[in-house]
Design brief:
- This protein is mainly beta.
- The chain has six helices and 24 strands.
- The protein has helices spanning 8-20, 157-162, 191-198, 292-295, 371-382, 441-445; strands spanning 44-59, 76-94, 106-121, 126-129, 136-142, 145-150, 155-156, 186-188, 202-206, 209-215, 219-232, 235-248, 253-265, 273-287, 313-316, 322-326, 330-335, 339-345, 351-359, 386-394, 403-413, 416-426, 432-440, 459-460.
- The strands form three sheets. Strands 1, 2, 3, 4, 5, 6, 8, 9, 10, 11, 12, 13 and 14 form a 13-stranded antiparallel beta sheet that branches.
- A hairpin with a 2-residue loop joins β5 and β6.
- It is elongated and about 80 Å long.
């Protein structure tokens, strides 16, 4: 019987593994063994993940193609290569809370030793690294996916991608059989294991199987293979996987993972289509030396649980003029120094809000467009879609952060009730941006969903003030 990894029964089984010690005798073909990772809050485990990938990206053509009819337009095909290296130190523990949403959750205090993801080919070259001042993370599994919460301030989307890899150390226990097994036996991997290896956020078909190839007194070798069908933010795809798992019985640790992955995926609302072959290699070891940052159990700078503030993403405008913070449901889909498009996407890949940011005309330092004229411009632009204004006002801005004005309008697009939040943002130097968040009326009334105020987090970069224009 499958036991939920977060149930009291499963937590008891982990504790029994800790208390019962290890069986180190040789195995015969008929002997069965239980394979469990040891949750030991006193030890630190180093995980080194290396992944290489090459293949093709498919970018959808424009909605109005000038060279072909929409149903004949072909996606643009780009060759891509990528390499990722991630080295982390983890100290695991089970939450001590007896109840609540975090009860029994496996968490890890994590130090990033190295994180870099390089992309090349016919796409824009990029080298994403984690900043040295963003080393400390709290890591857990939430909604069957790994979460890395930064304890030292917001990280960029590129930094998040650099520290996100299949086969994350906190998930490798999910690849082991839940029942006792003998040499030659096979078992089905559950969806947690499939998500660990594919990074699909939803699983439609899970055909992954493991086979126990060898059991020695100190080591177990497992071969896994199969096909998984699923999606990433609504972009459907499939992946064929084959590789090996190495389990160290002495340390109670999955200490090696080598997987070949062949993935094909259709384009989604924020994800490109692709045909990619990749190879993932993970090595893990118990660290014998004391790691000072992870040594103290009572260090107050390490919270017990991941909070929303730990999941914030920092986005910097391409010219460096300003930055904004937002939650991880927002994704930048287009950006240049004149205009940027940021989409808010739910887990199923549906766009539930869109933010358009456009550079406005520059004005004298300390000045901004008249809000009455701004309201009139907006009403003219909306035309028959306009219904009513249900909120407006000047934003409270930090000292030195210029002027902000917000206008909330209800209207209709093809009889669908829609809400627009218009922003007029002006820097102390006179740079102006006009931002529009478009969403449905239903989204604004859903109190459990937050994040529509991302424009209000805008912070202008330090810059010399422009001189006031002299009267003629």
């Amino acid at each position: 019987m499958w036991i939920s990894p977060f149930s009291p029964l499963h937590r008891c089984s982990i504790l029994l593994v800790l208390l019962s010690g290890l069986t180190t005798r040789s195995s015969s073909a008929a002997e069965k063994f239980s394979l469990r990772e040891r949750v030991d809050g006193q030890r630190v485990v180093r995980s080194t993940c290396l992944m290489t990938a090459d293949g093709l990206y498919f970018l959808d053509p424009p909605v109005e193609s000038k060279t072909a009819k929409p149903d004949k337009a072909q996606p643009e095909t780009l060759k891509v290569k990528a390499t990722t290296k991630l080295v982390v130190l983890d100290r695991w523990k089970l939450s001590e809370s007896a109840d609540g949403p975090n009860a029994g959750v496996l968490t890890a205090r994590r130090l990033i030793e190295f994180a870099q993801a390089d992309v090349s080919g016919q796409v824009r070259p990029a080298s994403n690294q984690i900043r040295k001042e963003r080393r400390r993370f709290l890591t857990d599994i939430h909604d069957e996916m790994v979460r890395n919460g930064s304890l030292d301030g917001s990280i960029t989307r590129q930094e998040l991608e650099a520290i996100t890899t299949p086969g994350d150390g906190i998930t490798l226990w999910t690849l082991l059989p839940k029942q006792e097994v003998a040499v030659g036996e096979t078992y089905k991997l559950d969806n947690l294991g499939a998500k660990s290896l594919t990074l699909f956020d939803t699983i439609a078909v899970n055909g992954l199987e493991g086979k126990i190839e060898k059991i020695d007194t100190d080591r177990v070798e497992i071969r896994i293979h199969g096909e998984v069908r699923g999606a990433v933010l609504g972009a459907e795809g499939k992946m064929v996987l084959e590789g090996t798992i190495g389990f160290n019985r002495i340390d109670g640790l999955v200490d090696s993972l080598v997987i070949n992955r062949d993935e094909s995926r259709r384009p989604g609302s924020v994800e490109a289509g692709l045909e990619i072959h990749s190879k993932l290699e993970v090595k893990r070891e118990v660290v014998e030396k004391v790691v000072p940052e992870l040594a103290s159990e009572s260090d107050p700078s390490w919270p017990k649980f991941i909070e929303n503030k730990h999941l914030s993403i920092l986005w910097n405008e391409p010219s460096g003029l300003f930055g904004m913070e937002h939650d991880r449901d927002w994704h930048v889909t287009w950006t240049d120094i004149q205009e940027s498009v940021i989409k808010r996407v739910d887990k199923g890949g549906t766009v539930i809000a869109q933010c358009n940011m456009k550079r406005g005309p520059t004005v004298a330092a300390g000045r901004h467009q008249d809000p009455a004229q701004f309201r009139e411009d907006v009403r003219t632009a909306l035309g028959t879609q306009y219904k009513r204004v249900f909120g407006e006002g000047v934003l409270d801005r930090l000292e030195g952060q210029g002027y902000g004005y917000k206008l909330a309008i209800e209207g209709l697009i093809q009889e669908l009730p829609v809400v627009w939040y218009y922003y007029l943002m002006s820097s102390p130097a006179g740079d102006q941006y006009v931002s529009t968040i478009t969403t449905t009326l239903a989204e604004t009334r859903e109190t459990s969903k937050t994040g529509l105020g991302l424009v209000e987090s805008l912070r202008w970069s330090a810059q010399p003030k422009k001189q006031e224009e002299s009267p003629k």
